[in-house]
Design brief:
With 470 residues, the protein is mostly helical. The chain has helices spanning 2-6, 10-28, 36-49, 68-79, 84-109, 119-123, 126-131, 138-154, 157-170, 173-190, 202-222, 231-234, 242-257, 262-277, 284-304, 317-333, 339-352, 374-389, 405-408, 441-450, and strands at 396-398, 420-421, 429-433, 452-459, 462-468. Helix content is 59%, strand content 5%. A five-stranded mixed beta sheet has the order 2-1-3-5-4. The longest helix has 26 residues, at 84-109. This is Glycosyltransferase family 39 protein. Keywords: Cell membrane, Glycosyltransferase, Membrane, Transferase, Transmembrane, Transmembrane helix.
Length: 470
């Protein structure tokens, strides 16, 4: 079996991964938008409703993120139909693009003797897998990030300009990524890790000018650009004090270690120390990947930790993927005797990551592992029970985003199907779930301790509980 895997080509690996992604699309084609993806759907709906004639979303809906992803959603709804399957068709195409670029990155940066089959280990990274199923803009951002790195290494001017422009028009985090790529470009050139071809610098000019033009038009229409005036979004982009910086630093570090990724740190840190100390045994491909990893990690840290925006694991996918490639390279570089055991441990930990469930009082990045998919089954069971016992949704307070189904599922809700707002003082019934990160610990403890549990459903750690006031 091992010898067969060694003979597999990168093209065969890519074909296999595309097949897996197609099967995933067929299995999940009716799966709703989740969490932050719901707000993207609402903004895409505004563009769609305006017949694709307007792409700058009004301040009331606008989080400040550029509109490439939501515009693509609106385009697909226009060409096909406004449905979950067409939304997921767009995600499938983006996923295939990511697979192509990630396989290419591995092919160009795996050290000699690393088999193409090692790409499969990179693809097992749990947050990466979860994001291939999530209708959000993070996979599009990852596609342009990988395209930018590959174009930089290969000095492909057109692709580089496209990648940088795509990053700036997909998400505000794209600004950090462009800065990181520019710094990587500088270090690569100084250390002669790539050929210094001046025409590629035009990519920065094209991207910055086009983005500046967009910002100008947005300012002309809305009176602001980048920093939204919408209060609930603006509040997430404020600077914080020293105490919160410390807390954010711990959350940042936790993001790199959870969902099984701690095994990477256990293996990678000593190997990196050994590699850095041994200055006589350098490898250009290891150097490139290591530099890219540390630059991205550094830029993300200084760009996010001093601010109030909640830190999500999915923000750092490029770091996780580079870390896996780096580990594979170092294991092969040092020809470790226990490499099969190490690979097996990484596989086990990555798979186990999808079953990491924290207590309800601890916020969790639910969209960063496949665990969130269990919520749909639990939700269906609970609503079937509520309907069977004749409790009206209007009698139930909850922070679960049922009332946004017009955007998450494209389902038109009647007033009778709408739940009431969460209010522990006035609600007769309250519906809780650990998928909700907004309910304060004291409210959770009050309800769980002093209210009557009416019904509970759970699946692989994801639960939903209906309580009644005593």
């Amino acid at each position: 079996m091992i010898e067969y895997l060694k003979k597999i080509s990168f093209k065969q690996i890519l074909f296999f991964l595309v097949c897996v992604l197609v099967v995933e699309f067929l299995q999940l084609k009716q799966t709703p938008f989740f969490w932050d993806g719901i707000s993207k759907s609402s903004r895409a709906s505004w563009i769609y409703a305006n017949g694709l004639t307007e792409f700058i979303v009004p301040t009331d809906y606008n989080s400040g993120h550029p509109p490439l992803w939501i515009t693509l959603l609106a385009l697909f709804w226009t060409f096909f139909e406004k449905a979950l399957w067409s939304s997921r068709l767009l995600l499938l195409i983006v996923n295939i693009g990511v697979a192509w670029q990630l396989v290419l990155l591995c092919k160009n940066n795996f050290v000699k003797l690393v088999s193409a089959s090692a790409v499969l280990l990179v693809f097992l990274e749990p947050t990466f897998i979860a994001q291939t199923t999530n209708l959000n803009n993070d996979m599009l951002l990852l596609f342009f990030t990988l395209l930018g790195l590959n174009a930089l290494i290969k000095s492909q001017q057109l692709f580089f300009a496209l990648a940088l422009s795509g990053l700036l028009f997909t998400n505000l985090r794209g600004i950090y990524i462009v800065v990181a790529i520019a710094l990587i470009h500088l270090v690569y050139t100084r250390l002669e890790l790539i050929k210094n071809r001046k025409p590629i610098y035009l990519g920065y000019v094209v991207a910055l000018l086009s983005f500046a033009l967009f910002c100008y038009f947005q300012y002309e229409k809305l009176g602001w650009f980048l920093i939204t005036q919408k209060e609930n979004y603006n509040a997430q982009r404020q600077s914080v004090g020293l105490k919160q910086v410390v807390i954010n630093s711990m959350v940042y570090a936790k993001s790199f270690l959870e969902y099984g990724r701690f095994i990477m740190a256990l293996f990678l840190v000593p190997l990196l120390v050994k590699y850095i100390k041994d200055k006589s045994n350098r490898n250009i491909k290891i150097d490139r990947i290591a530099i890219a990893f540390f630059v991205f990690a550094f830029i993300f840290f200084i760009g996010m930790v001093p601010f109030s925006n909640p830190i999500g694991d999915r923000y750092f996918m490029i770091c996780y993927l580079l870390a896996v490639i780096l580990l594979i390279n170092l294991i092969t570089h040092f020809n470790l005797a226990k490499k099969r055991l190490m690979y097996s441990a990484v596989v086990v930990m990555f798979v186990s990551g999808h079953f990491w469930i924290y207590p309800a009082t601890i916020s969790q990045s639910w969209d960063s592992s496949l665990a969130y998919l269990n919520s749909y089954t639990v939700e269906e069971q609970m609503e079937r029970y509520i309907d069977s016992v004749g409790i009206k949704p209007s009698e139930i307070g909850t922070r679960i985003r049922f009332n946004e189904r017009n955007f998450s599922e494209f389902k038109v809700l009647t007033e009778a199907e709408r739940y009431t707002d969460f209010n522990i003082e006035t609600n007769q019934f309250i519906l809780l779930s650990n998928i909700d990160n907004q309910t304060k610990d004291e409210d959770l403890n009050e309800i769980m301790s002093n209210w009557t549990l009416v019904k509970r459903y759970s699946q692989l750690g994801v639960f939903m509980e209906l309580y009644k006031r005593q």
